[in-house]
Amino acid sequence: MDDPRKDPGSSASSTGEEKTYTTGGLHINRWVLTGNDQLDVNIIAERWNIETPAGIEALRVAIENIQLLDRKQKDYGPANIAKFGANGCLVRMSDKYERLVNLFKKKRNIPQNESIQDSFKDLSNYAIIALLCLRGKWPKE
Question: How far apart are CA 62 and CA 135, in angstroms?
Answer without folding.
Answer: 19
